[in-house]
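Lab manual, section 2.4: Encoding a predicted structure.

Procedure: take the sequence of the chain (103 residues), apply the prediction step described in section 2.3, and record the output as structure tokens. A sample record is shown.
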Amino acid sequence: MAIPPAQQRPAWSPEVAGRGFRTSCRRADVDTAAKLVGASFATIGVAGSGVGIGTVFGSLMLGYARNPPLKQQIFSYAILGFALSEAMGLFCLMMAFLMLFAF
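Recorded output:
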């Protein structure tokens, strides 16, 4: 049974116009997702720091095995390499925490 044209509601009505435009995604959700993705990308550098530290101490063992008399000099270079690599990892971790908690 069809509704007569006089009783049909028009496509536009004040009720429809009063609702406003709504989406399923809110700005806070997008901002939170962006923070989490950015922080996860920043922590990739921590893994690189671990690889760098392993490389430094692996090279220390090889250098000591090939030339034992230079143990002290090779060890001081290894500690310098360890400190620089660890500092890069800490900077990456600091940036991840800044993205999560400061913004």
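Check your result against the sample. The chain is about 75% helix and 0% strand.
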